Amino acid sequence: MIKVGIIGVGTVGTSVAQILKDNADVISARAGTDIVVKSGVVKNLSKERGLDIKLTDNVDDILNDPEIDIVVELMGGVEEPFEVVKRALSSGKAVVTANKALLAYHRYELAELAKDIAFEYEASVAGGIPIINALRDGLSANHIESITGIMNGTSNYMMTKMTNDGIGYDDILKEAQDLGYAEADPTFDVGGFDAAHKLLILASIAYGIDAKPEDILIEGIDNVSQEDIQFAKEFGYAVKLLGIAKKDGNEVELRVHAALIKQEEMIAKIDGVMNAISVVGDKVGETLYYGPGAGGDATASAVVANIIDIARSGKSTPMLGFDRPMEGKKLTLKPTANIQSKYYLRINVSDKAGVLARITKIFEEHNISVETMLQRSAAEGSANLLISTHIAVEKDIQNMIKELESLDFVKSTPVMIRII
Ligand code: HSE
What value does the mean pLDDT take over residues 194-211? Predict the structure, then answer.
């Protein structure tokens, strides 16, 4: 029999305990042994959780319990769970976590500490979708060319509602929070940080890239307005918050930002809180993974899968997918300034003679070629210029935006969304 201790019995932890009980028949048959939750750690012991497991508010009750084989870490946060997980590993206990923020910062230290002890984290990226398993094992024969994904359900829910129902940003955020998908601090969702944590984990498995959130381009959906969405619709695009990893020679670009994607692309059709990740391998071609990226049972499904795997095999796959570095082929992170893309810009300007000519001159001076341009009347003698560009270099766009911002006839900071 395998005994599990759950540290953090909230929504996901409760579902883990419930699934192990509800599906005990199929789980023990698949694992070849019974798996039971021996105890769980909670902050508030007086809250009713409807579970028949022993609860404590002291992590030591799990970490020092020699009967517990697997510690499930569902506390949230970064440094506190890092300490807890280190202690679990050093006492020889296998660990399963859903904690993407912990892994975004400490995955390489944890891989080093785990060595021969199982450390699994399937639920950390895209909840119930087995993307870690697919990338680390199913696609291990491939050089990975790109990963493009909707990795944050909350932002996708918000973008979908803004597109289909025309609802305002704040109302939809509130809805997403009420549905229980948003992070405790929703800035992590709408600011792109949650998706970035997930992208960094995937980038380690795909490319062996050891980057931290502060090393990569992270933008959210907070700037996207109804006007941008209407422009997107008119020109056949959907607006999505994407995590993108792309190999270019010996460099890998990693970025999270809102993006305009052609409506006919599969990923543009992913609506609501669902996640989807497209992985292109050099031998397999494009593969697409779709499913619930959040929610108690969906996330717990991935946690329990890891528990079953550990129960039956101990440890076989290296935690981050590489047993040793690729000889002479180390990939490095592409500097953000060198990323190339097509861009969409919304520039609010004074509606008077000569402004358009000055704007187009500035585009030319920054080596940026306009593909389409629309002008729409806006408030009090101003107009919005909605412009899409041909492929340009990130640093040129950023420099141009700075110059535009400094001009007296440009009324507010221009909004930029990359086009995929
Ligand atoms: N806040 C996350 C989301 C939860 O909305 O996708 C899953 O990581």
Answer: 97
How large a percentage of the chain has pLDDT more than 90? 85
Q: Give per-residue pLDDT as tens, 151-163.
A: 999 999 999 999 9
Answer yes or no: is pLDDT of 315 > 80.
Answer: no
Q: What is the mean pLDDT of the segment spanning 103-108?
A: 98
Long-range contacts: 325-332, Cβ < 8 Å, 24+?
A: 325/208, 326/208, 329/250, 330/208, 330/250, 331/207, 331/208, 331/209, 331/247, 331/250, 331/251, 331/252, 332/209, 332/250, 332/251, 332/252
Q: Which of 311, 322, 300, 316 is nearest to 98 (CA)?
A: 300
Q: How far apart are the first and last CA of the chain?
A: 50
Predicted pLDDT of residue 238: 96
334-371 confidence digits (pLDDT tens): 999 999 999 999 999 999 999 999 999 999 999 999 99
The number of beta carbons lying within 10 Å of the beta carbon of residue 319 is 23
Structure token pair of residue 127? 């909840």
State which ligand 1 atom lies nearest to the alpha carbon of 98. 8
Q: What is the pLDDT of residue 317?
A: 87
Instruction: Give the position, in ligand 1's atom list, of the atom nearest the Cα of 181.
Output: 5
Pocket test for ligand 1, best of 15, 152, 275 (most atoms within 8 A of CB): 152
Model confidence, pTM: 0.95
Would you say 110 and 119 are in contact if contact means Cβ atoms under 8 Å apart? yes
CA-closest residue to ligand 1 atom 4: 294
The answer to whether the CB of 154 is under 6 A from ligand 1 is yes
Determine the longest span between alpha carbons in the chain, in angstroms. Answer: 80
Distance between CA atoms of residues 272 and 290, nearest Å:
12
The residue type found at 342 is K
Total H helices, total E strands in the chain: 14, 18
User: Minimal CA–CA distance to 15: which of 41, 50, 45, 67?
Assistant: 50
**pLDDT given at position 56:** 96
Q: Which residue has the tokens 């697997």?
A: 70
Q: In whole angstroms, what is the distance from residue 203 CA to residue 198 CA?
A: 9
pLDDT at 328 exceeding the cut of 90: no
Tell me the one-letter amino acid at 155. Answer: S
Contact 383, 347 (CB under 8 A): no
Helix locations, 68-149, DSSP H: 79-90, 100-114, 131-133
How many A from CA of 298 to the centre of ligand 1? 11
